[in-house]
Each structure stands twice: as structure tokens, then as C-alpha cells.
Amino acid sequence: MRKLLVLALVGLVAQLIDGSLGMAYGLTSSTLLLVAGVAPAAASASVHLAEIGTTLAAGVAHWRFGNVDWRVVTRIALPGAVGAFAGATLLSSISTEAAAPWMAGILFTLGAYLLIRFARPLRTDRVGGRLRGRFLGPLGLVAGFVDATGGGGWGPVATPALLVSGRMEPRKVIGSVDTAEFVVAGAASVGFLIGLGAEGFLLPTVAALLIGGLIAAPLAAWLVRIVPAQLLGAAVGGVIVLTNARTLIRSAELDGPTRPALYALLAAGWLAALVLAVRALRRTRRARAEAASASPAATAAAADGPEADVASAGEVPADLAATATPAPR
């Protein structure tokens, strides 16, 4: 019972992170299951089966809060499902001994990517335009394959790519990726069911993760508007790197002073990423505050300009004043 309660808490925390960042539910859950000694294929299968429920709840919540672009969802979900099914089939055919380092390597790489990604300022200044299907299709295919073989990865691959494109609001990127993940999780679960059979799913683990995730999904959809993603992403990336480094170091049979030296190096890198994330967050907030303070001044200056004087004197007809072209700067 204690283990199931811990897993439920893991599912709750993982869904809070995922709903706020658009990533890391599978990474967080799979990492902790691997640390607990669960076989890689069984861990990924159980996480994806639980994700069917959590992503459905998250998608509904994001839809209610207006965080979903359905055009992007439809164009990324189906290729993602194909990639996830292929990845689940591949992972099911690999032995546990061979799959453990492979899965830990993918999770470690994605965790390092999170550290690098969130240690820098997040670009949100190029919103506009439309994302093409020739970009969304391959992105969904790769993200789905990595997600199934690594026990997580849909969000870390898809979310940053859509954010960097600059053509969607961050909250809609997160909401759309979370909503599309419902289809991806379903396809991966079918692949694991075919490859492993029903016994490949740890149903008590699935139930605990699902309960925690369902509780957190509505709250996460609301938190996406206020949570500092910069710090959360760097913190989660460090946890994933350190926990999966344990599996990789053990697989490489590194002993003696090498092991603590590597852990110390990784911990120092995590601390540096957190410091950079804090600085980036402060710079972003400072820039927004300066832009907000400058906007009322610009508005007042425009109101005091020649056009305002003419309009106040009644020299411009109302039908022309409504469409007047501002003077060049």
C-alpha cells in the first residue's frame, strides 16, 4: 500500500510538471520506475497505459482553458501514433539487459536537453503564421518513436520544436502537445500489448500513476498560465540526468574515484543550469516590465501629438478619423 501511495504521488507530481511544461510525465515516471527495478519495457508500457487516462483529462482541461490548437493536434497526433507503435514494438523485442542502458541513455539525453533548453531564455516573441504539415508530420513521427522506446520523450521532442518555431503561443504549444499525446499513448499501449501481452502491464502501478495524474491534470492546465517554466524545466532536467546516470555508470562498470567524480560533475552542471535559468527568468521579467512601463508613455505621447490636437478641434470628420494613418516615425 505504501508503494502504491508513493506511485500515486509520483503520478501527481509528474502530471503537474507535464501540464505546466508540456513534457516530462513519461520521463519522470519511467525514470523512477527504472530506479525501482522495473524492467524497461514494462515501465514504458505501464506509463503509456496510465497516460491514456491522464492525457485525456489533460486534453479536456486544456481545451476548457483555451490552450488547444486543433489543427496542430490533428497533424501531429497521427504520425506520432505511428512512431509510438513502431517504438513500442521494437522495445518489446529487446531483452531487459540490452534495453536498460538504451532507455537510460535516451532519458539521460532528454534530461540534458531540458537542462540546456531551460538554462536559456525562452523565445516567445515570434508568434504568428501557420505551421506546415511537412514540419508537423516528421516531428510527430520522431517524437512518438522516441517516446515509446525511451519511456518518455513526446513532450521533450515536440514541445521545444514548436516553441522554437515561434508560430504558436507557449500555452497553446503545451496544450496541443498534451492533447495529441492521448493518441500517441494509445498507439504505444497497443504496440506493447501485442509485443508483451497483458502481463507486460503492471496494473497496480498503472492505477496508482493514473489516479495521481487525474488529480493533477486540471490544476496543471491552470498552472501553465502562472508557473515559471524556466525554473521547473531546469529542475526536472537535473533530476532526470542524475537518476539515469546511475544506470549508465553501472552499465559501464565504472568504479573507484571515477563514479563520485562523475556525479559531482553532473551535480555542478545542474547547479549551473539552475543559476542560468534564474538569470534568464529575471532578464525576461525585467524586459517585460520595461516594455509595460514604456507602453503607457508611448500611448500618452501619441495622444498629445498633432493628430490628437486636430481631432479635438473637430477639424477631422469622424469617418476619416477612424481610419486615419498614423504619422511615420
Largest sheet properties: none
Strand composition percent: under 5%
What structural class do the secondary elements suggest? Answer: mainly alpha
Distance between the termini: 69 Å
Alpha-carbon Rg, integer: 23 Å
Which term fits the overall shape?
A: globular
- Summed over residues and divided by their number, the pLDDT gives a mean of 76
Give unreliable regions as ranges. Answer: 306-329
The total of helices stands at: 13
SSE pattern, N- to C-terminal: HHHHHHHHHHHHH
Helical fraction: over 70%
Number of strands: 0
Characterise this structure.
By secondary structure, this protein is mostly helical. 79% of the residues lie in helices and 0% in strands. It is built from 13 helices and no strands. The chain has helices at residues 2-21, 25-35, 40-64, 70-92, 96-118, 133-150, 154-165, 170-196, 203-223, 229-251, 258-303, 306-312, 318-321. Residues 306-329 have low confidence and may be disordered.
